[in-house]
């Protein structure tokens, strides 16, 4: 009776401790897991026909074996031993038995060597889950815990392989545990193998799909690239038309001015001779039209974005083998090999098209910048010419 009272006190103490201090993020190592370990330990102790005093030590260790999780995740066994020792001393539990409880708790640490039947029973109770049909569900809870507390992330395939390796590496240490759990453990191992094979087949199928000989872009991606190319080409044509318009207009104005200034015997020439101040607006107009036409010509002239290209750098993200400014700098054989690589690799194809669009945009940026300068100079020139002409006439 006294033994049951102490074990009940320990259970109540652990329940309150977990309720108040255990993180809710511990979805596996929580009170539910501890309660199941105690339950399995009690059953295995009965099967092994342990004396009452040894059962007491075993169950106390089962209650306290995971209490260290309230303060630390790794090496929690040491904290569990401290918590159990403090509680048992408060209950005036014999020191030699406290030492045995602590040894049982430490035996649950992974890779630890056991030296006593009590330790073997507690270890079997702690891993009893691998011999139950709930193994796969609870294993996912452990996976979540490791991601949160240890930063260990797994793909589904990696986790399935890890779980299979674990199932094959562990074994129950006591005869009662082997009798109770071995059958289901064998089923779990086979089920895990089947699951791993399914995931491996899916992965291989996905990899095979990605390793197509020719790139197969989706319709939406094709539409995006086609639309982007059309837009850039249209904008380039508009810029060239605007530049040609400015070149023609300014060329006509310059021709008229030069012709009139060269006609010394004409009425206009005589008028300029009698009023030299009129040369100021004419000079302003001539200078601004010249600057404007130069900017327009620079904007309209062909521009090729290029840089030094080395054959061994054909796969660089800056290289565009679809653009003549790049591929004409490499030998034909290297160009052919590069094109074959592009046709085999969808990502390489997309990369070249993206690079092409980028440099088309870079050319367009320069075109429209020069056009803006040309139009601005022309507008300012017209304004200054009119203002200076009005001032000259008024004088």
UniProtKB/TrEMBL annotation:
<dbReference type="GO" id="GO:0005886">
    <property type="term" value="C:plasma membrane"/>
</dbReference>
<feature type="transmembrane region" description="Helical">
    <location>
        <begin position="243"/>
        <end position="262"/>
    </location>
</feature>
<dbReference type="InterPro" id="IPR043760">
    <property type="entry name" value="PycTM_dom"/>
</dbReference>
<keyword id="KW-0472">Membrane</keyword>
<dbReference type="GO" id="GO:0051607">
    <property type="term" value="P:defense response to virus"/>
</dbReference>
<feature type="transmembrane region" description="Helical">
    <location>
        <begin position="277"/>
        <end position="300"/>
    </location>
</feature>
<dbReference type="InterPro" id="IPR003607">
    <property type="entry name" value="HD/PDEase_dom"/>
</dbReference>
<dbReference type="GO" id="GO:0000166">
    <property type="term" value="F:nucleotide binding"/>
</dbReference>
<keyword id="KW-0051">Antiviral defense</keyword>
<keyword id="KW-1133">Transmembrane helix</keyword>
<dbReference type="InterPro" id="IPR009218">
    <property type="entry name" value="HD_phosphohydro"/>
</dbReference>
<keyword id="KW-0547">Nucleotide-binding</keyword>
<dbReference type="Pfam" id="PF18967">
    <property type="entry name" value="PycTM"/>
</dbReference>
<feature type="transmembrane region" description="Helical">
    <location>
        <begin position="373"/>
        <end position="394"/>
    </location>
</feature>
<feature type="region of interest" description="Disordered">
    <location>
        <begin position="197"/>
        <end position="217"/>
    </location>
</feature>
<keyword id="KW-1003">Cell membrane</keyword>
<feature type="domain" description="HD/PDEase">
    <location>
        <begin position="26"/>
        <end position="254"/>
    </location>
</feature>
<dbReference type="Pfam" id="PF01966">
    <property type="entry name" value="HD"/>
</dbReference>
<protein>
    <submittedName>
        <fullName>HD domain-containing protein</fullName>
    </submittedName>
</protein>
<dbReference type="InterPro" id="IPR006674">
    <property type="entry name" value="HD_domain"/>
</dbReference>
<keyword id="KW-0812">Transmembrane</keyword>
């Amino acid at each position: 009776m006294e033994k049951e009272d102490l074990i009940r006190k320990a259970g109540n103490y652990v329940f309150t401790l977990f309720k108040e201090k255990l993180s809710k993020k511990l979805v596996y190592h929580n009170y539910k897991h501890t309660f199941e370990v105690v339950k399995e330990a009690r059953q295995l102790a009965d099967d092994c026909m342990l004396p009452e005093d040894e059962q007491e030590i075993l169950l106390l260790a089962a209650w306290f074996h995971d209490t260290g999780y309230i303060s630390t995740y790794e090496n929690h066994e040491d904290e569990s031993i401290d918590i159990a020792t403090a509680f048992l001393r408060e209950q005036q539990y014999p020191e030699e038995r406290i030492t045995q409880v602590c040894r049982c708790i430490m035996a649950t640490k992974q890779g630890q060597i056991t030296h006593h039947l009590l330790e073997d029973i507690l270890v079997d109770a702690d891993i009893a889950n691998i011999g139950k049909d709930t193994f796969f569900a609870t294993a996912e809870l452990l996976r979540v815990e490791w991601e949160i507390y240890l930063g260990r992330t797994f793909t589904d395939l990696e986790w399935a392989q890890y779980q299979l390796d674990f199932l094959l590496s562990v074994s129950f240490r006591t005869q009662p545990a082997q009798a109770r759990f071995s059958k289901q453990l064998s089923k779990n191992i086979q089920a895990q193998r089947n699951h791993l094979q399914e995931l491996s087949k899916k992965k291989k199928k996905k990899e095979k799909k990605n390793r197509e000989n020719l790139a197969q872009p989706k319709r939406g991606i094709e539409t995006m690239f086609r639309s982007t190319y059309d837009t850039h080409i249209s904008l380039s044509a508009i810029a060239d038309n605007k530049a040609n318009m400015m070149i023609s207009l300014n060329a006509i104005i310059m021709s008229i001015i030069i012709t009139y200034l060269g006609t010394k015997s004409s009425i206009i020439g005589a008028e300029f001779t009698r009023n030299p101040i009129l040369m100021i607006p004419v000079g302003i107009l001539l200078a601004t039209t010249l600057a404007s036409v130069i900017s327009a010509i620079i904007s309209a002239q062909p521009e090729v974005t290029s840089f030094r290209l080395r054959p061994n750098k054909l796969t660089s993200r800056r290289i565009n083998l679809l653009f003549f400014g790049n591929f004409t700098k490499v030998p034909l054989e290297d160009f052919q090999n590069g094109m074959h690589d592009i046709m085999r690799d969808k990502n390489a194809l997309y990369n070249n098209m993206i690079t092409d669009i980028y440099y088309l945009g870079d050319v367009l940026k320069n075109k429209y910048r020069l056009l803006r300068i040309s139009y601005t100079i022309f507008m300012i020139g017209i304004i200054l010419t009119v203002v200076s002409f009005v001032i000259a006439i008024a004088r």
